């Protein structure tokens, strides 16, 4: 039996299936194979509780010790900080969190804006070269912005960033486990070499800081160091790229919202939170399993049962959010979504992701006030939008748009095609 959460339709629009599951109850068992089932949590209250419940372990090494998965993921991926429980998780997280504090992110903001402005200029030139035709907002902006930021933090050379991004993308290939396994080894091998290079010539970067922590205090083993570096580069851009891509997808389908945010950039922080809720970058959180029997949302979870929490489903729970399938900037309690998780594994890069997204939307709307979709969807077409094939992440792989005339005729603007 095919897993409905690994279908192309689920990648394109997971919300009908998630809503159908929630309508039957906030915690439902889903058949994911001939002899496999998984609990899927779509209720907001239940999802929030599950994310903080110590009875749900993330230790995949222990789970698969006597349950061979048939996969060949590199240990740097399969045994990362995401796949650990306390106390190891807290020790590893403490070493990484300093790079993503609000103060550290504030220091990064000018550089994030500089990168965003440069990408916007290149995007405008691409539109000119296409004689005013559409450009891909994912390939030209949403994806390269966060990968550039995290690669700078980790001192990944410019020449290597395209390969790092490709390996990271391939890790989430839902329909092709072999591709994901190969990418895990390629990325782990690359990070091992990069760590050796930074150890020989340390700099003022996050990776050098982690190496110093490992070498001076022996608080990290060498495999932990490699794993943490891999996790930072993957988690440091995947969620943000999808946040920006999903936000742009939402903006392109709402002329009034686009105009409102263009005219009042002060609303962008609220908009970022609503985009996070409405089109969660993470549809299904990573693997958890029950270490003992317990009840959740009326369901009896058995010891060893796999539980997948769905931020995408929880964020549209009508028991928590009024009109959950509508974008609203005036929600009485902004935030409250679970897109960055909750509890011990709450995304440590959330402050940086929010800053990158806010700057991304601000730059694009200011530079290209005429930004518009290829189609409004009324004719039934998707305008060339293509979605990533992954059950975990939610984001467009391709998002064509017309840029329209740039503000004040600035460099990187768009010129009207002759005869138009």
Q: How would you describe this structure to a colleague?
A:
By secondary structure, the protein is of the alpha+beta class. The protein has a single domain, classed as Cytochrome p450. It has 17 helices and 12 strands. The chain has helices at residues 8-12, 15-24, 44-51, 60-63, 75-78, 88-97, 102-129, 137-142, 144-153, 161-170, 177-200, 206-217, 222-252, 255-263, 268-278, 311-314, 350-367, and strands at residues 27-33, 36-41, 56-57, 135-136, 288-290, 294-296, 299-301, 306-309, 372-373, 386-387, 396-398, 400-402. A 5-stranded mixed β-sheet has the order 1-2-8-5-3. A 3-stranded antiparallel β-sheet has the order 4-12-9. β1 (27-33) and β2 form a beta hairpin. The longest helix is centred in the middle third of the chain and has 31 residues, at 222-252. The model is unreliable at 408-420 (pLDDT under 50).
Fill in the keyword field for this structure:
12 strands; alpha+beta; globular; 420 residues; 5-stranded mixed beta sheet; Cytochrome p450; 3-stranded antiparallel beta sheet; 10% strand
